[in-house]
Amino acid sequence: MSSPFDPALSRRNFLKWSGASAAAIAAGSQTPVLHAQAKDGNTGQAPTVAHKYTVCGMCLNACGMIARVENGVVTKLDPNPRFLKSRGMLCARGNAGIQQLYDPDRLKYPMLRKGERGEGKWERISWDQALDIAAEKFMKIAKEYSRCGVLFTPGSDTQSTFVHWFAEVFGSYNIATHESSCLLSRNRAYLDTFGEVPFADVLHTRYIIIVGANPFEAIMTPDTIDLMTARKNGCKIVVLDPRYTKTAGLAHEWFPIKPGTDMAFFLALAHVITQEKRYDQTYADEKLYGINELTEHVRQYSPEWAEKETEIPAEAIRRIARELSAAAPEAIVYPGRRTSDYVNSTQMRRSMAIVNALLGNWDRPGGLLAARQVGLANPDLPEAPFYDDNPENRLDHGMANMMFDEEGSFKHLRDAIIAGKPYPIKGWFIYKYNPLQSLANRKKTIEMMQKMDFIVSVDITMSDTAYMSDLVLPAPSVLERQDPAVGLQGSSACACVMARDPVIPPLYESRPVFDILKGMAGRMELAEFFDFTVEEYRKGQLKGLPDAEKALREDGVYYNPSKLYGVYDGKIYKTLSKKIEIYNQRYAQMGADPLPVYQAPREQPVNRYRLVVGRSACFTHCTTQNNALLHEMMPENTLWLHPRSARKLGLTDGDRVEVKSHAGRGELAVSLKNGIREDTVYMASGYDPLSPGLTRIYGRGACIADLIEDYADHLSGNMAMHETFVQITRKGAV
Amino acid sequence: MRTQLAMVIDSSTCIDCKACMVACKVENQVPEGYWRNWVKSSEPRYADVDWMDSVRPAHFQPGGCMHCSNPTCVSACPTGATYKDESDGAVKVNDRLCIGCGYCIPACPYGARYRHPTRHVVDKCDFCQHRRDRGELPACVTTCPTKARVFGDINNPKSDAAQLLKQNRSIQIVHESVNTQPNMYYLSATAPINWPVKPGKPDAMQFWKLINPSIWGVVGLNALGVLLMLGKQILMSHDKPAADNSSPEKES
Description:
Mean pLDDT of chain B: 84
Number of strands of chain B: 10
Shape of chain A: globular
Oligomer: heterodimer
Radius of gyration of chain B: 19 Å
Structural class of chain A: alpha/beta
Distance between the termini of chain A: 59 Å
Number of strands of chain A: 28
Number of domains of chain A: 4
């Protein structure tokens, strides 16, 4: 056999392929893929082996994959090298997608609760029974309490678009998504500054400040990979984090900032940049609204002042401001992703967005990128019915000043459901959403559930939230289903379309949520709104892209070679002033701070530690800890504690402790880590579930959702998960 | 020149995401609790630096069987099951000859071998032979997000691995007691490097050496059996086992 490595997919070829223009890719390339025949069907070598394009669903990134199917069994998932968004890679979770498919802990058939909620007594029922019950119960609630009496929570999933559609035609505006526990405050801040939410062109940047983000562990494609490539190309990385994350470990500089003081750092950067006139005056005159107001406003926020707040030396702040502005416009304050941290999270991100505005990096290489055109169409669907007995607004309307009406705020919704005001919510349809593990204050979520008459969970395993539901319906993994097309932007890598077809047929009795919704619609006189197949829906989406179906078939992805930089040339910004709003006029009109005003975090009580949330590359929030392939990496979570804090508490490494907050308690072992501030503790999410159906992690570690107290960002209603102080006590002798 | 497959690793780009470990585990059906490859962390470990003093950058180091040119595991194998494949330079285990004695396990300074709990033979990385047969790269190489592992024939000057090796300073990780001549090259400043252990013969082997000389008779018979097995291997397998010219350090 001649060496396969010279001509085939060598690293050099891979890089060449990655760098190829989108147009060349659409036209087809000579470069071999995973191997030459890697597409639907047989390879020609072994008739029982097929390689099929698909897209990962272990987190929301959607990375291109090639599934190897041998005799009908999926035996390996490999990265699709033609999928530029994921840079031809597949992370540990992606590789473990095969275990999600064949996990014995999977839900296998519909189950109806028999005993009390959470008692774990179930009766196996047929799909017809299940759909009859769901339709009947939801219609009963609709009659008694209005259609808004049913809450819908679609998680981040390709088929969630159908849950939104179902909620619309059923007639409830009460939809809460994953977003209000994740990135709403970031979105709010950037929308209110630039008029849209940007992508960071990490690959081409020369200087990046990362705060409240951890891209080497919280893998984002292509940002994570691009950050390493940029680093190799000489990009300087500065990380501020109370915890020595892997991103901090691989950065050029790491500052263990005092938690909750990030805004002071950015206001001081703005202070140096404006006082020393380190921004482009012509650019500012033309594009920025409120530069003079800012200059005046940040005069008070000197690096010396910021040092007292952040515990970062003033000289370092001044130096970083100078280095950052010298690298501009190929310089970024990384917008981050999960920003559900503090009660002033939107204003904190506004201060970061403002520094980006001063760098003049918008819509430029190495800066912040606008959304590119992907070209998917909206399929023709009938007009949703109007129900005039419905209340005027969603339940949590007005509970935060600048809430996104289509996203809501889970935290505020939960409070309103418990209070039963302004109107009751008695039903809940849950898809791929597990607030009992992922969101603050587990007890309060249970309290909310006890206010409800009927709860349906569609999930792949018996998650905690499924376990506390009344009807549990088994969903297939992404490898077993056909999905609508989705437009993705991979920062500067691509604007593309992905779609999935089943790699294998659904296992057990699992059914995709589309089929479940269609089945329910048919039993509620809503059949006409689901009178289509996923296939037809996708055709409608792709009607404006004549090359897309072929590309999806042959490459597993379709690229739209749309404009990447200069999207805003000759265009106005979608803000009130039609410019980049450093000074936000809407905020001024409604009484919020039009420029971010610093407020110190709440005083830390004596002998209490701030609990922070953070990610590991093997786990997607709380969904993959029970996956056998990933579970081995961390069989249970521990509490990170600084050795000096441990000494004060009389603890040594491995001691078991009780951790208490106003929300709840947990027991776990401590890990002594120098890489965490003395006033801060950390534990991984997703352990100590209520559900014994998660056999590997049941009874292991402690549940962070039981400890985090419920706070929300004032402006966006985004959950604030870093506002909790915990008490730590030794738990018996070991 | 003979093919010598190798990995040239730029560990400074490793983010310790463990994708290579999971990819390998799936591809090679490595059972729970065992690994064919790994990612090591620099000492002090990334989370153990004292930020109040000086912060050293963290360093993560992907690894696996080094496919040594002077393999101590091959010398330790009593049946010839473990051999250096001359066709590609990889160190392999012939399952049909392996008796699961496990002598090769401590003989590897890198901990790259384990006894398979159900197949009862020794298992290790073979650079994904079955994938290479299909024209694919090893699973860990293909999946790596930052492409830290570069794989190829270092004796072929056109290969990426050979070029990377030529253009950069590199090091091999060995225990001071024996130069195993590993075929895993790390670019410049990798860490940690002091983790290999002294290759050891298993206690059982040393025990027999010390015991009553009459045992030599048994050992002789044993050796005959070994020779027969070797003969069987040569006759049955077209993958001719490498001649064992290596002379690893003897344990005292």
